[in-house]
Design a protein that fits this description.
Shape: globular
Largest sheet: 9 strands, mixed
Bound molecules: iron/sulfur cluster
Distance between the termini: 37 Å
Radius of gyration: 19 Å
Number of domains: 2
Strand order of the largest sheet: 1-2-3-4-5-6-7-8-9
Length: about 325
């Protein structure tokens, strides 16, 4: 359903309050009469449907194989459990010295700022994450600040989630200001899918606090397919770039969605047009409910070879595997 309407100054909170959560509505809006709605509803029980309407405008109507639809459509394959699949494939809970903070790699820590997202990606490796146990109140925030202040090897903080930009700008500005007072911190990295999902999220408040803090701001976006990046998204990304934010992208290699070099070349060309450099292409983390998206390593290596033949090196992302106890991601 390709529509092109001018972007209106709508509050991102209003967009979030009007997400599509009902599978019947999703199928009706896209003219997907042939899909088994009972099965879709059953699959939603474990991980509910959540889709912004603006994302749906980028999905092709009446095409059950549309690559954007496949990322959000609950499928019965999610109910199949295999030995390889786990609830916490990266064993993240082992790396949480303080509630809401993960410290896995040298020099950087990750803060789980928000337990919610604008969209539910069916392949998400945190789809079973116990966000309630990571909730950050005033006491936990002070404990996080104390932990970072006590370790001078930490130079970078990553805001993650869920989607950290689901938090209000007032909260993000206050937290960033607190972090800026820690002298050994140099960078704030924000891992977010929000500017791609809801371009209205890139508002003046966000641009203000990110330009006012002492820390260098890096934003790592998450886009898997060129069709996600329409002209509204492009405008939002230009605003971020013009505000001095370094923009990178990470994708997940997903069967039936972007597992060929042509599709990835289009994505990375499109990202570069919007001021974004490709960073990582992650192999799927083996999370329960998402194994039908898995692409074999052999196939991934072939895709990489093909991609290298099509693009300059700076547009080829690093293919990466994350393992629970490795000191860094394994790239190939
Ligand atoms: S936006 Fe990120 S954290 Fe949220 S469901 Fe998608 S992949 Fe998971």
């Amino acid at each position: 359903m390709h529509t092109s309407s001018p972007i209106v100054p709508i509050l991102w909170k209003a967009v979030l309050a009007d997400l599509i959560t009902d599978p019947d509505e999703l199928c009706d809006l896209l003219g997907l009469s042939e899909l088994d709605r009972t099965n879709i509803k059953k699959t939603c029980e474990g991980f509910p449907l959540r889709v912004p309407r603006s994302y749906l405008s980028r999905v092709k109507a009446a095409d059950p194989q549309d690559p954007l639809l496949l990322q959000i459509l609950p499928r019965t394959e999610e109910l199949i459990s295999t030995d390889a699949a786990q609830l916490d494939p990266l064993q993240e809970q082992q790396f949480s010295p303080v509630q809401g903070l993960l410290h896995k790699y040298h020099g950087r820590v990750l803060i789980v700022l928000s337990g919610s997202c604008a969209i539910h990606c069916r392949y998400c490796f945190r789809r079973h994450f116990p966000y309630e146990d990571a909730r950050i109140g005033k006491t936990q925030w002070q404990a996080i600040l104390d932990y970072i202040a006590a370790d001078s090897s930490i130079s970078e903080v990553i805001f993650s989630g869920g989607d950290p930009l689901n938090s209000t700008d007032a909260s993000l500005a206050a937290k960033s200001a607190d972090l800026s007072t820690i002298p050994h911190l140099k960078r704030l990295r924000i891992h977010t899918r929000q500017p791609v999902m809801i371009p209205q999220r890139v508002n003046s408040q966000l641009l203000n606090w990110t330009s006012e803090i002492r820390l260098n701001v890096v934003m790592v976006l998450h886009s898997n397919h060129a069709n996600e990046i329409d002209h509204h998204v492009k405008e939002a990304l230009f605003k971020l770039r013009d505000n001095g934010i370094s923009l990178l992208n990470q994708s997940v290699l997903l069967k039936g969605i972007n597992d060929n070099a042509q599709v990835l070349a289009q994505l990375n060309e499109r990202l570069f047009e919007c001021g974004v450099l490709p960073y990582y292409l992650h192999m799927l983390d083996p999370v329960q409910g998402a194994m039908h998206f898995e692409v074999s390593k052999e196939r991934a290596m072939q895709i990489k070879t093909d991609l290298q033949a099509m693009l300059p090196g700076y547009l080829v992302p690093r293919f990466a595997i994350e393992e629970p106890h490795a000191l860094n991601k394994t790239t190939f």
